Structures
1.
Amino acid sequence: MILTILIIPFLWAGVAIIAALLGTTYVITLKNGDKLTVLGMQASGKTRFLSFLRKVEYIERATGQEEYKKFTYKFDKDRSVTIQSGVDRGGGDNYKQYYKKSIEESDIILFLFNLNEYINENVEYVRETNSRFELIYDFAKKQERDVVIIGTHKDLLNFSEDNIKKNFDEKISTKSYKDLFKAFILINLTDKADIEKQIKLIFK
């Protein structure tokens, strides 16, 4: 299973991350200079998501290691966020060693995973994703970091977002890391309008 990690410092003060899980609201505030780490499972769309933020063409390929320059994402004429340069990396099991360091060096963590694979119980994918949830929860809790979980490929599931979240909540209700999902959103990375909508929700 290939994982990807990205650390990006935010330079816009007072940005709040807000997301809903089963009718509840959880707000995370980004302060000036905060760093954001993006973690992603294989085929979760992390690089596609980053490409959208950077406003560069997404080229589908296995992620190796690619540096990118500082860029600014504009929400509208009055709001924008600047993200410093960083490295978009991919890797296998040996990449797990960077999770703890990445979380320690960051203030906010985003984790992307393929919700379609998870809900439809691809056993290997579910097991690997659960192990990542547990790692992130343990490290983030110890470091008192905020986490936003992003379920991708919602367009491949044939039921409503409420039902998707209810289904998912039932699957994690007995897990030690269930509190990791205070901030949980769903996104369709093939729909530009939905990506823009969810970005505005994340960075409200």
2.
Amino acid sequence: MNVQQSEQVLLSFARTFSVQERSLDRVFEDLFTGHYPRLVKTLVRLVGDSGQAEELAADTFYRLYHNRPPGTPETLAGWLYRTAINLGLDALRTNARRARREDLAGREALRQDAQGSPLHDLLAEEERLRVRSVLALLKPEYSQALLMTSSGFTCKEMSGVLGMKTDSLYVLLGRARAKFEQEYLKLYRRQQ
């Protein structure tokens, strides 16, 4: 019995309920073996995971077996693929929502762990004091340039505030960073 004949028998069962249970199982088995591999391939292209694609294909055939949709043999194959693709799209949406929730929960946990710790607060304050003490040792234009950079100023804004050309600003920033690192290491390398 080919796939089209199996579809016809299944559809006639849906309309008349006259097919015996044993022959219905045989018809369903023929439909399954005829469409399952192609259905799985289609779903793998959609969801990108062969295990999930096999689950969705099995769910599609489960729905076919229990719902017995009405229609013609031509529409039964269409029903299978339409149902499978809809299940695949639902799975993609579910996976995306789950990924967003997990990502959000992970970020929140990291933020709470990092910010809620008294040790973290103490270390952060100590680091701020160190940076301030090193900035106080630098030339004022070096300190200003470093502070403006860390505050998110653009090079054009910094050039205007400091009264220099953009090319000169890059040189100044390079020297300021090098001097800051040198002074910081000189003061705090032995304490770490």
